[in-house]
Structure formats: C-alpha cells, structure tokens
Design a protein that fits this description.
The protein has 505 residues and is mostly helical. Helix content is 55%, strand content 6%. A 5-stranded mixed sheet has the order 2-1-3-5-4.
C-alpha cells in the first residue's frame, strides 16, 4: 500500500472541499433513472395500502408510524393518482442519500476519490435502488439513518453542539417513519460510550435532541399502548417469516443487498475502522454496526435493517483506499467498470426494464420479488368484479380480501367496475372498518387454494369457488392462482366474526 497522501490544497479544518459537481451528477443520475422508470408496471401493494391509510390518519398503525401514509395522502390530494408523483419522494431520498454518503467520506478525511467511491456505492446499491423505486418506509429509513451517522461522525470531528440537536431532529422524523429508528440511535450512542468521547450524555444539546426525539415518539407510543402494543405482535410475525434466509442468511444477504462486486468496500471499511489509527476516533461506527448485527440476529431481524450504516462503512473503506491504496488483488473492484457493472446489474435485477410479458422468464422475480408485486392489480380487480356481477342483482354482497394490497387495489380500481369497498383483516386495514352486520353474502379472495374452503367454513355455511386470480403474465406473485369464493350463511354477526379476521404479517 502507498503512504498516506497529503491534505488537499484548500482544505479547511482537516477536510477537503466537497466534490459537489460529480456528487450532484451521481445523485441526479440515480433519481433520473428511478423517475424515468417510475410509471412502468403498476402500484406496489404497500403503496396501495399507504394510499388508503392516508385517508384513515392516526398517530400509528400496527405495522408503521403515520408519516408515510400522511405523505401519500398529501401527494394524492395535490397530484391525484399519479404513480410517478407518489414515487418522487423515494427517488429524492436516494439522491439525498448519495450526497450524504459522499459527505460522510469527506468527514472521515476523504478527498474527491473517496467521496466518489462512497457516493457511487450508494448510487448503485441494489437495496437503495429497489427501495427508491416505490414509496416505501425503507427509502426514508436508509436516508435518515445515513444522515444520523453523518451527524455523529461530524460531531466527533468538530464537536459542534448543534449537530447533537440536529441528530435529535433527524430521529424525531425517523420515529414517525419506522418504529426501529431509535435502535440505530441507541447503537451509535453505545458505540460512542464504548470508544469515547464519553462526555456525550453530559452535553446539553444531546439532552435537547433526546427530548425532541422522545416528544415526537410519544403520540405513536400512546397509540400503541391504547391498542395493546400490536407492533410487538408484528415484530414476532416478521421474525417468523424467515425471509432473506433467516438468521443464517443475515450477513450473506447484506453482501447481496449492497451489490456483490462492491460489497468488499464496506467489509474493508469495517476492518479498517479497527486497524487504522486515522479512523480510530470513528471506531464507534464499527461498534454500532456490530451491536446492531447482534441485536437483529437475536431478534430475527432483516439484513436491510443495517442499511443506514452501510454508507459510513463504505466511506471508511473508501478513505483508506484513497490513503493507502486498494488491497492487493482488489484493484479492479475500485474502478469505473466495476461500478458500471454493478449499476447495470442493479437496474436489471430491481427495476421495471422488461416487458411485462417476459418478466417471469427473467431472474428479477427471484431476486426482487417486489417487482412481481407491481403487476396484475387491474386484472385482479376485474376478476373480483366478474364474480361480484355473477350474483343476483338483489343479493347484497360485501368483498373480503386476504391482504391490504388487495383491498387497496379494489379501492383504486373498483369504482370503475361498480364495486363496493373491500374489507381486510390484514395489519392496519383491520382498523379501517368491518363489514356491516346485515351483510349475508361475501365475495372472498383467498386462502391460496381450494383446500382453504375448510378454513372459510368456520365463518360461512355455504362456501363455493367462483373464480381464480390470474395476472396474465405467468408471475408467481402473492395473488397468482388465488381462488375467489362466494360465501353465504355467516355463522354470526360481523361484530362477532371480525376479531377472528385480524392478521399481522
């Protein structure tokens, strides 16, 4: 490795100037790609849910805080049902994350090359791009935690007390995006207490920031307490899913989600945080990352819960590459072609670049199942409408579906078919209302096969299959192949039955 390079001319306080032009080009390029492809395929099930949840605003839901549904409501109120408009905030989150990642490298002493290596890793990160394609809590959470790590690093370097208040403000927003947000703050604070400076807790601005964050969290905590803490049940349901390979896949999937070719950079950064004297003041980032790994492994969390710390690790690796050279044998991995290959692979595996008719024959549905979940909603609603129209005109029927995406799709596309609203017991949708007690007939979507008739007969005496969902593209998504039933003879009033329909997943 080469010797450390001297400070860049014109640097101030030990840092080089931000490489604004290339950073802005990277950020703008990522956002442009996301927005250019924003209207292809269709809504994701979460977006359909947010759209309806925004009309049932509350201080919380079983599966999320209120800010993203509030944002969805604001966007649809101003722009109507514009898919591109709905996805602009997530694309902007990715662009902002690219900039903050580059500035994080600057705070660690990185000059132009380190800033671009870090920002580029964020710009082509498969998870960041996938999350930025739809309105999602993940895109906001990744940006806000990245900003939180940046503020902690900058505070260690400058000791500017305003940064502690800013960290509190970022956390105040984050706790209204995702309930896990305080965990990252706790890990960063624990890392600082382990490595120093240990006077963090005595700083008045830290206390002010903590008060701000707690005050922002109180309404959501009150909602959870009043509703029996459903988030705890939700956490258990998520842990039981065992997707991303469960605990054995926790670390390997971080390599996949950060881009296999470029994953070396954050791994190298983590190693150098514990080896490099230059990075010793920032070793708390390594501690925070390891603590979060231990916590989420113990609770069966998801590998992308660590996404907000990847930028700081990329930055640590990039700064060491700039100072000491690329580790032997890895020179190819810090080149423009390596980033370009990762970027192209990310687009092909996460974004809607294929014709819908050929999507099922590509690797994308296996790598990024969320893409398949944006296909087929109009056909789904059309099939439900066909079954609903097959009933005698004088037979009033309610529609009950198995998840919030299906209910949200009927809310969006159902009016053109003359459908009534749909009911679902899934997550927050359970709180949006139950069927009226006078409803004796129901058009029901799911369970997943005709064998589910036995489960439905717990609630109705007469259960008959009347249709089947087909997205028309051969995609094996969550709706494909589900039966549509006509159910008559409810075994009780909906006041009695509705609690049995509540599900969390």
């Amino acid at each position: 490795m080469s010797a450390p390079a001297p400070e860049a001319p014109g640097s101030r306080s030990g840092t080089a100037p931000p490489a604004w032009r290339p950073l802005l080009l990277l950020a703008g390029g990522a956002a442009l790609v996301l927005l250019a492809l924003g209207a292809r395929y269709g809504y994701h099930r979460d977006e359909l849910y947010f759209r309806v949840a925004g009309r049932h605003l509350d201080w919380g839901y079983p599966d999320q805080p209120p800010l993203v549904p509030l944002l969805a409501r604001a966007i649809t109120a101003v722009f109507g049902d514009s898919l591109v408009a709905l996805r602009v905030p997530s694309a902007l989150c990715v662009a902002a994350g690219v900039l903050v990642a580059g500035l994080t490298a600057r705070e660690l002493g990185g000059r132009r090359r380190a800033q671009l290596l870090t920002a580029g890793a964020y710009a082509v990160c498969p998870f960041a791009i996938a999350a930025g394609h739809t309105l999602s809590t993940a895109a906001f959470d990744m940006l806000l935690t990245t900003a939180l790590a940046w503020s902690a690093i900058r505070w260690v370097r400058t000791r500017d007390p305003r940064l502690l208040l800013a960290a509190g403000a970022v956390t105040a927003v984050a706790v209204n995006i995702k309930y896990l947000a305080p965990v990252a703050l706790a890990a960063l604070a624990a890392g600082l207490l382990i490595t120093g400076p240990r006077d963090l807790l005595r700083k008045p601005m830290f206390g002010a920031g903590a008060v701000l964050a707690v005050a922002a969290a109180v309404p959501g905590l009150v909602w959870q307490a009043r509703h029996g803490w459903p988030q705890l049940d939700m956490a258990g349901a998520i842990a039981g899913d065992a997707d991303f390979g469960g605990r054995p896949g926790f670390v390997p999937f971080q390599i996949v989600l950060t881009g296999v070719v470029l994953s070396w950079l954050w791994i190298y950064g983590l190693w150098r945080l514990y080896r490099s004297p230059d990075l010793a003041p920032y070793r708390f980032i390594g501690h925070a990352y390891l603590l979060l790994n231990a916590a989420f492994l113990a609770t069966a969390g998801k590998p992308y819960y660590l996404a907000g710390l990847w930028a700081a690790l990329w930055a640590a690796g990039a700064v060491e590459v700039e100072r000491r050279g690329v580790p032997k044998g890895w020179g190819w991995a810090a080149t423009v072609p390596a980033y370009a290959v990762t970027g192209v692979s990310t687009v092909l595996l996460t974004l809607p670049v294929y014709p819908v008719s050929t999507l099922a024959s590509t690797p994308q549905p296996a790598v990024n199942p969320d893409g398949a979940e944006t296909v087929g909603w109009p056909r789904f609603v059309a099939e439900v409408a066909r079954v609903h129209r097959s009933l005698p005109p004088d037979e009033r029927a309610v529609i009950i579906v198995s998840n919030y995406g299906e209910a949200g799709a009927i809310d969006l596309y159902g009016p053109r078919h003359g459908l009534p609203r749909a009911y679902s017991g899934h997550n927050g949708y359970w709180y949006f209302g139950r069927p009226p007690d006078g409803a004796g007939t129901a058009v029901v979507v799911g369970p997943e096969s005709t064998a589910g008739a036995a489960a439905l007969r717990r609630f109705w005496t007469d259960v008959r299959p009347a249709g089947r969902i087909d997205n028309g593209a051969g995609l094996d998504n969550e709706e494909q192949g589900k039966p549509v039933w006509i159910c008559r003879g409810p075994r009780g009033s909906w006041t009695e039955l509705w609690p049995e329909f509540r599900t969390l997943s």
